[in-house]
Amino acid sequence: MKIVLLSVGKAHETYVQQGIQDFTKRLNNYFNADWHIIAPLKNAASLSIQETKLQEGKLILQHILQDDYLVLLDERGKEFSSAQLANFIQQRANESTKRLVFLIGGAFGVSEEIFKKANCVWSLSQLVFPHMLVRLILAEQLYRACTILRNEKYHHV
User: Fold this and answer.
1) Do residues 150 and 26 lie in contact, with contact meaning Cβ atoms separated by under 8 Å?
2) Which pLDDT value is given to residue 20?
3) What are the φ and ψ backbone dihedral angles of 71, each rounded to 5 degrees?
4) DSSP state, residue 44
C-alpha cells in the first residue's frame, strides 16, 4: 500500500521541514509514502471563500485516483487514538487498498465535492493548528501507528 500525503498550502517551512522529512523517512520503512504540496491559489485574495474552495478542489482532484481511499483531515471529523489509527491503517492494508491518501485542505477547508468524496473524515484534535504543524503531526502519527502495528517500542501505553 502506498501512502500519499496531500496538503494545500505553502512548501514546508524550515522550522518543521526537518521533522516532516524525518518522520516521512521513518514511515517509508513500513509503507511507500510521499508528500504532494498543492500551492495555494495566486488570486485567492480576490476570490470568495466558496470559489477558493472550488478552485482548490479542482487542483486536489488532479492528485486523487478513482480507487484511492481518501482520508480528509477536518475539524468536523472523527477523532482516533493512536491505537485506533493503527487499526484503521491495518484495515486498509487488509482490504488491499492501493493508495491511502491523507488530505489537508486549504485555509478555508475543502469544497463540498471533496468532502463528499472522502471515505473518512478525521480530526486530529478539537484544537486548530497551523498547516505546517498538521503536516508534522500527521507524519508522526502515521509513523507511530506503524510502530504499534509492528509492536515496536516507539509507542508507550
Assistant:
1) no
2) 95
3) -110, 115
4) G
**Number of domains the chain is built from:** 1
Taking only the tens place, the pLDDT of each residue in 55-114 is 999 999 999 999 999 999 999 999 999 999 999 999 999 999 999 999 999 999 999 999
For CA atoms 52, 133, 65, 95, give the dihedral sign. negative
Instruction: For residue 33, give the H/E element and its range.
Output: strand 32-38
Distances (CA, A) of 124 to 32, 80, 95, 147: 22, 7, 24, 19
* CATH code at position 104: 3.40.1280.10
Predicted model pTM? 0.95
Each residue of 111-136: pLDDT tens digit? Answer: 999 999 999 999 999 998 888 999 99
Which one-letter DSSP state was computed for residue 112?
H
Full domain range(s) for residue 111: 2-41+54-149
CA angle 88, 29, 85 (to 5 degrees): 15
According to the 3-state scheme, what is the secondary structure of 45-110? Answer: HHCCHHHHHHHHHHHHHCCCCCCCEEEEEEEEEECCCHHHHHHHHHHHHHCCCCEEEEEECECCEC
